[in-house]
Amino acid sequence: MPVISFANAKGGAGKTTAALLLATELAHQGFRVTVIDGDPQQWISQWYETSGRVRNIEVISEVTIPSLQCHLREMAATTDYFIIDLAGARDALVTTAISLSDHVMIPVQGSAMDAKGAAQILDLLSFLKEKANLSIPHSVVLTRVTSMVTTRALLTIKGLLAARGVNVLNTPIGERVAFRELFETGGSLRTLDASRVSNLDRARENADAFAREVLRLMPVRTARSAASRLMNLKRDAA
Ligand SMILES: Nc1ncnc2c1ncn2[C@@H]1O[C@H](COP(=O)(O)OP(=O)(O)OP(=O)(O)O)[C@@H](O)[C@H]1O
Ligand SMILES: [Mg+2]
């Protein structure tokens, strides 16, 4: 069961939003997702409370360095994907979570500040490789992209990342009202009211494409997850 963490040392880069989109989309596809809320602001924990029970999603709040590994171990048998949301920092919890991850997603908006926060995480990944021989796959995901921001800033950031050999996901996460609305209403993009949220279809398509790209990077092929998905599909069809 892959562990995917979301990190950028700069606050407000879009980590929590991207983590929640991935969690809800994977759950929608029938995967059992455990979100570990390592962000002291506890946005995903609050979303979970607002939502009531969400099928296929468990959220673990108030994580500490010693408890992180225990949670991963305890939930492993009932989880297809772990998603860890982290603070906009480069502290000990971020380092520990990254070192326990199978893939680190680094959300970056088209701003120089964000790119610096991303560079700090990339430096940390290089450090872990050099000093601890830990080679952790990672990708940058461009976030809050608007059609107006097909900008030089974005192209510059993409160029810099390519020069460093960093994988950039093909699917950028757009700037969407629906993504903000999720935190107000709880639930998922599938349960939002299309008459109240503009361009909900486009938002769903975007989140779906993002999750599918992540799934291609990290497929779960255990018999257990295949079996449980089958059961979910049967239940949905009933
Ligand atoms: N794709 C998006 N579309 C619309 N709004 C977004 C998007 N991504 C993030 N936001 C908004 O930007 C703000 C910061 O986003 P978010 O909380 O996801 O960032 P973060 O990196 O988790 O921040 P922090 O470092 O404080 O944890 C929030 O108000 C959120 O609603
Ligand atoms: Mg956050």
Could you explain the architecture of this structure?
There is one protein chain. This protein is α/β, with parallel strands linked by helices. The protein has one domain (3-237): Rossmann fold. It has nine helices and seven strands; from the N terminus they run E-H-E-H-E-H-E-H-E-H-E-H-E-H-H-H. The protein has helices at residues 15-28, 43-51, 65-75, 92-99, 112-132, 152-163, 177-185, 200-217, 223-237; strands spanning 3-6, 33-38, 57-60, 81-86, 103-108, 138-142, 167-168. A seven-stranded parallel beta sheet has the order 3-2-4-1-5-6-7, sandwiched between helices. Strand 2 (33-38), helix 2 and strand 3 (57-60) form a beta-alpha-beta unit. Helix 1 crosses helix 8 and helix 2 (43-51) packs across helix 7 (177-185). It is globular. The model is unreliable at 222-227 (pLDDT under 50). Bound molecules: adenosine-5'-triphosphate and magnesium ion (MG). Adenosine-5'-triphosphate binds at residues 8, 11-17, 39, 41, 87-88, 143-144, 173, 175-176, 179-180. Magnesium ion binds next to helix 1.
Summarize the structure.
This protein is α/β, with parallel strands linked by helices and 238 residues long. Helix content is 49%, strand content 14%.
Which tags fit this structure?
238 residues; 7-stranded parallel beta sheet; Rossmann fold; alpha/beta; binds magnesium ion
